[in-house]
Specification:
Helix content is 33%, strand content 23%. It has 23 helices and 33 strands. The chain has a seven-stranded parallel β-sheet with strand order 11-12-10-13-16-9-17, sandwiched between helices. A six-stranded parallel β-sheet has the order 18-28-27-19-26-25, with helices on both faces. Strands 2-1-4-3-5 form a five-stranded antiparallel β-sheet. α10 links the parallel β11 and β12. About 1% of the residues have low confidence. It binds adenosine-5'-diphosphate and zinc ion (2 copies). The site of adenosine-5'-diphosphate has 18 residues, from α8. One zinc ion (ZN) binds next to loops.
Length: 745
């Protein structure tokens, strides 16, 4: 008997199975990881099958050295998934198998370990009194609040939330409030959760309706659903009930969220209802935590998996349900090797493992909604908020009028007034300022006119850094100098849109001295729990205004937020991407949905230079259908996805000449391929060599071969050939093939 092994090396020449003898008495099974001799070295590999014979002469065969674990690390369903993905992404199986394992398992980099844990030494009810006694120590108060759940918290974990916690913890220990112990325990991100189960609230009629359709299918392991539920309609409660039923059936469930750090509530709700059967998987966990959560799932101790994109590969057995929350988010796409769409992987798993799939969003992606309309998914709707809470009242403010009236501040008179009211009433506000780096678009502050490409329906961009001073269209390559006066109305008041979150924060401090403001953007949230700390600051009420980029628009649920302001709605609308209109609608609707989730109704102010824009109007009315119909029609006439495929070969090199040379060569080879294959050529609507709008990124000069293809099997063949092309080794430049990439910057 021979073991067929995929060796953990990603290289074209090794992209096949190797046969190994099995030593006497060694019991191995498919999916098990083994150490095998490979050339002069010992490598890790995965057993993918067994065979009686092979074409290697017997005297040349070598034997498996040892199993790496005494159980198969890869489940049969995962092996099948890896095979399917390898085929689909045209890459070696070794590469997709890696997705199925926590990275730190490879090379044996994690071990089980002991650690110091802290826990309350007093009853939980006594915490409030203890907090009183902490004088001015913010740290001690924070620590007590963290330990309040009564669970055991590794000190290392507390360190991520509170800087240098040891000293204050010792002080708390000395005061008899906290106790330490040394324990060997699985690293549980976020502690053990409350030991009292949160009771289930009675369901709303829409929740009942949705569940009555889904539960029978869940019991059969069938069904693909798209749940369109407005913000605050109570989608999470639907997930919780579905998960409960899944567990009752003896199966496991998976909840995918766009980004764990931004959905702490989802995690705590699930922890609250399911306790230790819930495992959390995401990239910000430490290596050890990730490995431990993975083992809990693999052993079947954790049967509810909550995680970001890559959690879709979790070793859940007897899978009964996959939920993809906020399914419209682009974070579900991984556009680098091996490229995958977590929603698609989820669908495969559900089909092959007999599970129910639920995609959910308040603003479904054009793609998913179109599929639901076509009948690929069953469409479910929850059109109203829970407990008859009204959707927020949205006012669109015309910033051109503000300018006419002499207001040059970034806040309109209305937004300033509403902020004042909100602060006076002791409520909270959120302000969205979606400043993206690198580029600026140009618009007229008198009439709102935005400089657009004469050939494409996208705005021109000005490259703030590394540009040539021209305005560019990065779809067709058109370039022109920036105008000195507005071509529409002749005004000289032409502006680069550039103000960011920081500017908003400054303005707030000026208007409301002494009011706590939290700013969330890439600059303030780096570090392991940057998000958690800032969100806690806001949740606790210490901060009254949360200013942030799109990262604040996602599933946050703060009941005291009654006002949401969108400082510059045009900013996303005019990004040079065919999806910018879809993104804007999603962003505005989602952020508006953060207002009025508690008992007090919410108000939303959207500031724009283009109040007549139909996307802005649709988001103000929170009218998804209107948005969908318009945008779908526009995609069809403009030949954008899903009617076509956008793809590119992206070349990056620290050497500008090298990048250009490689891209030129690839461009020529694409053209040659198409000359050879007329069937492919017929499907190519556009193929062009140029630089992306971000010409230099992280010190590397970038070039691209951009293309637009018709949706067709021949185009898929061409894409496969390009994938191969991109994998060719080339000294001095890297090449990536991106297929419907999430961004084209
Ligand atoms: P969505 O994800 O649809 O925006 P959430 O799931 O965040 O909405 O729910 C919004 C709020 O409504 C949450 O605070 C949640 O606790 C509450 N909620 C959900 N279902 C119910 C219910 N059946 N009864 C009372 N409150 C509910
Ligand atoms: Zn163009
Ligand atoms: Zn103008």
């Amino acid at each position: 008997m021979l073991a067929q092994v995929i060796v953990d090396i990603v290289h074209e020449n090794v992209a096949r199975t190797f046969s190994y003898l099995i030593p006497e008495g060694m019991a191995l099974s498919v999916g098990q990881r083994v150490a095998v001799p490979f050339g002069p070295r010992v490598k890790e590999g995965v057993i993918v099958g067994f065979s009686e014979a092979c074409d290697v002469p017997p005297e040349k065969l070598r034997a498996v050295k040892a199993p790496l674990e005494d159980y198969p690390a890869i489940l049969p369903c995962q092996l099948e998934l890896a095979r399917r993905m390898a085929e689909n992404a045209h890459c070696p199986l070794a590469e997709t198998l890696r997705l199925m394992l926590p990275a730190e398992m490879r090379g044996g980099r994690v071990q089980v370990r002991r650690q110091t844990v802290a826990r309350l030494a007093i009853p939980r009810e006594a915490v409030d009194d203890a907090l009183e006694g902490q004088g001015r120590s913010q740290k001690r108060r924070m620590l007590l609040n963290l330990l309040r759940d009564g669970g055991k918290h590794p000190v290392d974990e507390l360190r991520m939330l509170v800087r240098d916690p040891l000293e204050p913890l010792r002080q708390l220990e000395a005061a008899g409030l906290v106790a330490f112990s040394e324990e060997e325990l699985l690293r549980r991100p976020g502690g053990d959760g409350p030991d009292v189960e949160t009771p289930d609230p009675p369901l709303t009629p829409s929740q009942e309706d949705v569940l009555s359709v889904m539960l029978p299918e869940l019991r059969q392991g069938t069904g693909r659903f798209l749940l369109h539920g407005v913000t605050g309609s109570g989608k999470t409660e639907v997930f919780i009930r579905l998960v409960r039923e899944t567990l009752r059936l003896g199966k496991s469930a998976m909840i995918l969220v766009p980004e764990i750090a931004l959905t702490p509530q989802m995690v705590s709700w699930f922890r609250g209802r399911f306790g230790a059967v819930a495992a959390v998987m995401h990239s910000r966990l430490s290596a050890g935590e990730r490995f431990d959560e993975w083992r809990r799932i693999r052993r079947g101790d954790a049967r509810v998996v909550i995680g970001a994109r890559s959690a879709v590969f979790a070793p859940a057995e007897r899978l009964g349900l996959i939920v993809v929350d906020e399914e419209h988010e682009t974070t579900y796409l991984s556009d680098r090797h091996p490229r995958y769409d977590a929603r698609e992987v989820a669908q495969w798993r559900c089909e092959t493992e007999g599970a129910t799939l639920l995609l959910a969003s308040a603003t479904p992606s054009i793609l998913s909604f179109a599929r639901a309309r076509r009948g690929d998914f069953t469409l479910l709707e929850m059109p109203r908020r829970v407990l008859d809470r009204p959707l927020p009242e949205v006012t669109v403010v015309d910033m051109r009028r503000e300018l006419e009236q002499g207001n040059r501040s970034i806040f309109s008179g209305l937004l300033t007034a509403k902020l004042k009211d909100c602060m006076r009433r002791g409520e909270q506000a959120m302000l969205l300022m979606n400043r993206r780096g690198y580029n600026a678009f140009i618009s007229c502050r008198s009439c709102g006119h935005v400089m657009k490409c004469p050939n494409c329906d996208v705005s021109l961009t000005y490259h703030v850094s590394g540009g040539d001073g021209q305005l560019h269209c990065h779809y067709c390559g058109h370039a022109e100098p920036p105008p000195s006066a507005c071509p529409e109305c002749g005004s000289a008041y032409i502006r680069y849109f550039g103000a960011g979150t920081q500017k908003v924060e400054e303005e707030l401090h000026r208007l409301f001295p002494g009011v706590g403001v939290v700013r969330m953007d890439i600059d303030t949230t780096s570090g392991k729990d940057g998000h958690g700390r800032l969100l806690e600051e806001f949740r606790s009420g210490r901060a009254r205004v949360l200013v942030g980029t799109q990262m604040i628009a996602k599933g946050l649920d703060f009941p005291r937020v009654t006002l949401v302001g969108v400082v510059a709605a045009d900013m996303t609308l005019n990004l040079p991407d065919y999806r910018s209109r879809e993104r804007t609608f999603q962003l505005l609707t989602q952020v508006a949905g953060r207002a009025g989730r508690g008992e007090t109704p919410g108000q939303v102010v959207i500031q724009t230079y283009k109040p007549e824009d139909e996307i802005i109007a649709a988001s103000a009315k929170q009218d998804y259908r209107a948005f969908f119909e318009r945008e779908f029609a526009r995609r069809r006439t403009g030949l954008y996805p899903p009617f076509t495929i956008m793809a590119r070969l992206l070349v990056e090199s620290p050497n500008p000449a090298m990048a250009q040379k490689r891209a030129e060569e690839l461009h020529a080879r694409c053209l040659a391929l198409l000359e050879e294959r007329p069937a492919w050529k017929k499907r190519v609507l556009m193929l062009r060599l140029d630089q992306p709008s971000v010409t230099v990124l992280r010190g590397k000069t970038r070039w691209q071969v951009m293309m637009k293809l018709l949706v067709n099997p021949a185009a898929e063949e061409f894409a496969a050939a390009l994938t191969e092309l991109a994998r060719e080794p080339f000294d001095g430049a890297e090449t990536y093939f991106e297929y419907n990439p999430t961004t084209m910057m």
